[in-house]
Amino acid sequence: MESTLLHLVLWLPLLGAIVTAFLGRDTLARGWALTVTGVTLLLATWLFIRYDPRAGGMQFESAAAFIPTLGSSLRIGVDGVSLPLVLLNALLTFLAVVISWNTTLRPRLYFALILLLETAVTGVFVTLDLLVFFLFWELELAPMYLLIGIWGGARREYAAMKFIIYTVTGSAFMLIGILAWYFTTGAGTFDLFRIADGARALPLAAQTLFFILLFIGFAVKVPIFPFHTWLPDAHVEAPTPGSILLAGVLLKMGGYGLIRLCMTILPDAARQLVPILVALAVINVLYGAYLALGQINGDLKKLIAASSISHMGYVLLGLAALTPIGIEGAVMQMFTHGTITALLFMMVGLVYDRTHTRQIPEMSGLATRMPFIATGFVLAGLASLGLPGMNGFIGEFLVFVGAFGVWPLATILATFAIVLTAGYITWMLLRVFMGPTMPRWSQLDDATPRERFAVSVLVGVIILVGVYPNSVVDMIAIGVQPIARLFA
Amino acid sequence: MELAWLIPVLPFAAFAVIGLFLRRQAELAGWLSVLAIAASCAIAWLLFFRMLGGAPPYEAQFPWLALGPDVALPFGIRVDPLAAVMLVVVTTVSLLIQIYSRGYLYEPEEAAEAGTGHPEADAAHGEAAQAHGEAVAAQADANERTRGAHGVRPPSAAEHGEHHGPPAPLVRDPGFGRYFAYISLFTASMLGLVLANNLLTIYLFWEGVGLGSYLLIGFWYTKPEAAMAAKKAFVTTRFGDFGFLIGILYLWWQTGVLEFGRLAELAETGAMSETVATIGALLLFMGAVGKSAQFPLHVWLPDAMEGPTPVSALIHAATMVAAGVYLVARAFPIFEHSPSAMLVVAFIGGFTAIFAASMGLVATDIKRVMAFSTVSQLGYMMLGLGAGAIGAGMFHLFTHAFFKALLFLTAGSVIFILHRAGAHDPEDIDPRDPPRAQDIRYMGGMWKRAPITGITMTIAALSLAGIPPLAGFWSKDEVLLATYERATHGGGAAYWLLLLFAIITVLLTAFYMFRVVFLTFAGSYRGPADPQYIKESPASMTLPLLVLAVPSVVAGLWGAPQLGHGFGHFLEGADFHGGEMNLPLALFSTLLAVGGIALAWLTYKNGSLLAMAMNPRPSAVYATLLNRYWIDELYMWLIDTFIINWAFAIDWFDTHVIDGAVNGAARLTGSIGNSVRQVQTGRIPAYALAVFGGLALISIWAIVIRPLFS
C-alpha cells in the first residue's frame, strides 16, 4: 500500500502527459497540467511526511519484473538522500507550470513535455536498478531538448544541440561504465545493491577506471569544470520554466548519480581519487564565482547560471570530504540550491518578461517600478550568498563543517567564495534594481498575483528550511549514514 | 528569565507583520515597531534588575541542525551580566531612536514630489543636478575644485532667502513603513546576537545584523551613493565574516563544542592549547574587525553615513558596530588564553583609535566626523579588551552607546533643521561635496535658533572628549588605566606605545569634536538657507535628545572607582579586581581634552583664524588625511587587479579556451563525420562486416580482457 504512493508520484505525470495529447483544446492543457503537477506535489509532500526519518533506509520500496532475462527489474524506493530531491522535483515542476501559464506556442506539447520531464527526473531519483536508471536518465533529455529548442531564445537551436550532444556524450561514458559493471561483476543483475557487492570485489584499477567513466557522465550534468560550458548557453536560451527545472533539478541528477552510483558502488575508487575531486570542487566553486563576477557587464541570466556552477562545486566538495557531515551537506546543498536557483531564474524571467533585455548595464533602478520583483530578487540573492535564516546557509555550512577537518586548506579556499558571492550578488542587485530609474523603464508593471504566488511559495520554503533546517536535514543526516559508513 | 526569548522575538514579529501587511500603512507600521521595541525594552530592564539583584545566569538551548543520528548543533541563548548590559543598551537606544525616526523621516514637499527623497537622499541626485554641478564647478576657482582645498563661498543668506521664500511643508518619506520593518529586523537580529550562547547562533544573528545594516544604508536606494555604500558595507564586513566562519569551523574541529561557556572552560583549564586559542581567537577577531570597522576593514563605516541619520545613530554608532567588541568580550577566555592574540587586539584597537581620529580632524561632513569618531572610540574599546580589561572595554561600549547615539541624533537634528529651512538647494552643490545641510563649513550660529539640539550636542561632545564627571570620562579613563597597568605589568614596550596612541587620541578627539560644535553652533550662519526659518526640531526628535543626555552625563558614575566600581563588579563578579583611579593619568588626560577644546575654540571661534582654518594651505598631510590615507583607492586597486580583472580574464578564458575547445571538438567531429560518411555505402556486406567486427571486439573483451580483471 505504501509503495503505491511512490508509484503514483512517479507515474502520474507520465499519465498526465499522455492524456494531454488527447485533450481537445489547447486551453485545457494548462489547467490539466496544473492539476496533475499539483496532485503530484501533494502526494510527494505526503510521502515526505510519511517517511520515517528515525528508521532511515529505503522506504516505500517495491519491485516488479522489467526485463527478467537481463536481470533488470523495476525496483523503486526512497531514502533520506533521494526523497528531498523527489519533493524538490515535484515542487519545481508545479511552479514551472504556474509560471508558464500564459504559454501560447503549442501549449499541449509544452505541458506534456514538462509532465514527461517530471516522471523522468523522479525516475532517476527513485529507481534502484541501473538499467532503469539509465533509461530514465536518457528519457529526461528529450523533453528538455525540445523545451530549449522550441520555446527558447534567439540562439535556441545552438543551445539545444549543445545541450543534447554534450549530455549524450556524457551518458555514453556512463553507459559504458554501467555495462562494464554488469559484465564484470557477473552477477547477471542490474540491481544497484547487488552490483555494488560485486563491484567492490573488483581490482582497484578496474574500479578506478569505472569510477572515472561514470564520473565523466555525471560531471557533465553537475556540471563540473571543464565540462560546464553547455550550461550557460542552455540557460541563456532556455525559457524561464526550462531554466528553473534545468538548474533546479536536472543538475541534481549529476550529484545524485555521484552519490548513489560512484560513491556507493565504488568507495575504494572514490577514496583513491579524492585529491582530484577536492581540487575540482575548489576550482568549480572559485571558477564559477569569478565567472559570475565576469558577467557583471553582461547577461543577467548567464550570471545566475555561472553562480550555479559555483554552488554545485560545494556539492562536490562535501562529497569528496567522505565524511558523514560532508555528504549530508552535499545532499542538503543540492536541495537548497535547487530552491534558490529556481527562485533566481524565476526572478530573472519576471524581469526579462518586462524589460525584454537581460543586459545588466541596460537596467537601473527597477525597484521603484517593481517593488515585489525587487524584493523577491533580493531575497533570492541573499539566500544564494548564504545568508543565515535562509536555507542556502545550511547546505554550505554543513559542507564546510564536513570538509574542514579533512581538507582545511581547500575548505578555506572554497569558503572565500562567500565573499565573492556577496560581491557579485550585491553588485548585480545594485545595478539592476537600485540607482535612479531610467526613463525607458518608467512604464513597467510589477508581478501579477499568479507570479506572486509562485515566488512566495519558494521564498516560504527557503526561509522555512533556513529557520528550521531539521525539517529536511534530519532525514538526510540519517539517509547518508549507510554511504558514509563505507568510508569510515 | 524565560521572558528573554521574547526580547528578540517581539521586534522580529513586528518586522514580519510590517513586511507582510503594513508596508503602506505608515502610521500603523511606525507605532507597531515602537511598541514592540518598547515591550522588549521593558523586559530587558526587568532582566537587568534581576541580574543586578544577584540572579544566576540563565541558559537554554535546543538541537537545531542535525549532524547525524544523535548529534546536532545547538541554538541557544544565555542571559548573564554581559548580555544584560547589552540588552538594556540596545533596546533603550533603539526605542529612543525609533521615536526620533517618527519625527525625522519627513521631507519638504517639493523634494518628495521630485521623487528625490530626504535631505541626505537628494545630494547630487539626478542628471540635472549633476550637470549643473559641473557647470558650477567649471566657473569656480580652480583652487576650490581640488579636493583638499575647499573654499567658503561668501555666504549670503539673504540673497538665497530671496530665491526660496518660506520653506515647503513637510510630508512623510514614502518608505516610512519599509524603514520601520528594516529597523525592527535589525534590532531583532542585534538582540539575538547579544543573547546567543554559542558561536553558530551568534553567527546567524551576526549576519542578520549585517543584512539590517545593508538594507538601512541602502534605504534611499535610488541614490547611487547610498546603494554603493550599502554594498561596500556588506562586502567589507563579509570579508571579516569569512575569517569568523573559518574560526567557527576551526574551533569546532579542534574542540567539538560551540558554546561560549564550554569553550571558556576549555581555555581556562588549559585543555585547549595556546596555539589553538591563538588561531581561533584571531580568526574570530577578523569578524570583529569587520563589524566594528577596525583598521584595516574600517573603510565601509564613513560611507555608511549615506543611510538616514537615525540609522547611523543606531547601527553605526551605538549597537551594530559594537557587535565586534561584544564578540571579543563573549569569547574573552579564548583571547585571554593567548597573549599574542591579546596583543593583536590591543594593537589594532589602539592604532585604529589614533588613525581614525586623525581623519576626523579634516572631514567636513558632520556625519562623517561622527563616523570617524565612532571608529576611533571602537578602537579604544578594543584596546581596553586587548589590555586584558574586559570591564574597561565593555564599560566604554556602554557609555559610548549613549553619548554617540546622542551625537548622531543631534547631528540629524541639525541636518533636519537646515534641510527644512531650505539648505538642501541642489543648485549650490558641487557634487563632490557633502550637501550643505550636512557640511559644517556651511553651518554656524545655530546656538540660539536650536538651543535643545545645541545644548545636548555640547553635552555629548564633552562626554566624548572625556571631561569629568561626564560618562565618557570614566570609561575612557578605565581604558587608559588598563593600558597603563598592562604596560607596567609585563606588557612591554608595545603597550607603552599604545598608551601614547591613546593619550594623543584624547587630544585629537576633543579637538575634532569641538571643531564640529563651534562650526555648527557658534558665530553666524554661513549656509544658503534663510536663517529666519532655522528653528528647533519637533518634540518627537528633541525629546529623545533630552532623554539620551541623561545617561550621557551620569552613566559613567556606575563604573567610577570612587563609587565602588559598580559596572566592573556586575560584569565580572568575583573576577573583578579594579584598582584605584590613577590620579596623574586622569588629570593629564583631562588637561589634554581641555586643551583640545581650547585649541578648537581658538581655531574656529576667532574670526581671524577662521578663514585660514577653513581654507587650509594645501599640504601633503592635509591631503593625506582628507583622502583617508588613500586606503580606499588602494583597496579599489587591489580589488580591480586581483578580483575584477581576473573575473573578466576568466570569462574570456571560458568563452575562448574551454568552450572554444568544445566547439572545436564539435567541428572536428563534424569533419570526421564527413569523411567517414563514405563508409555509409548502402552495401549490405559492408554493414555485416562492421557488425561482426564489433561483435568480435566485444567477444575479445568478454573472453580475453575481462578475465584479466577478475
Considering the chains and any ligands shown, give keywords for the structure.
heterodimer; A: mainly alpha; two-stranded antiparallel sheet; 74% helix; globular; B: 710 residues; mainly alpha; two-stranded antiparallel ribbon
Question: What would your notes on this structure say?
Answer:
The complex is a heterodimer of chains A (488) and B (710). Chain A has 488 residues and is mainly alpha-helical. Chain A has a domain at 267-488. Chain A is built from 20 helices and two strands. Chain A has a two-stranded antiparallel ribbon with strand order 1-2. Chain A is globular. Chain A starts with a helix and ends with a helix. Chain B is mainly alpha-helical and 710 residues long. Chain B is built from 29 helices and four strands. Residues 112-117 and 121-164 of chain B have low confidence and may be disordered. Classes of the chains: A mainly alpha (488), B mainly alpha (710). At the A-B interface, helix 6, helix 11, helix 13, helix 15 and helix 16 of A face strand 1, helix 9, helix 10, helix 28 and helix 29 of B.
